[in-house]
Specification:
Oligomer: single chain
Strand order of the largest sheet: 1-2
Number of helices: 3
Strand content: 15-25%
């Protein structure tokens, strides 16, 4: 994203009260420990590295679906 980062998107979601524990971070870069801590403290469900393993993403999405049925 040329004008803003994923961290910017996360901050905007927080401002709007739209963060949930169902957010996935997709990244091609190596994240520092501080960046990982920041994401985890902001209810990021999973950090997935590109190239994305589609099976892993589908598995995580199925977990969300199961959890929502139990609520």
């Amino acid at each position: 994203m040329p004008d803003f980062s994923g961290f910017d998107v996360l901050e905007e979601l927080k401002k709007q009260g739209k963060t949930t524990n169902n957010i996935f971070a997709l990244t091609a870069m190596t994240l520092s420990d501080e960046q990982v801590d920041h994401l985890n403290s902001n209810r990021i469900r999973k950090i997935l590295h590109k190239p994305i393993e589609v099976d892993l993403l589908c598995k995580e999405m199925e977990e969300i679906k199961k959890e929502s049925k139990h609520e």
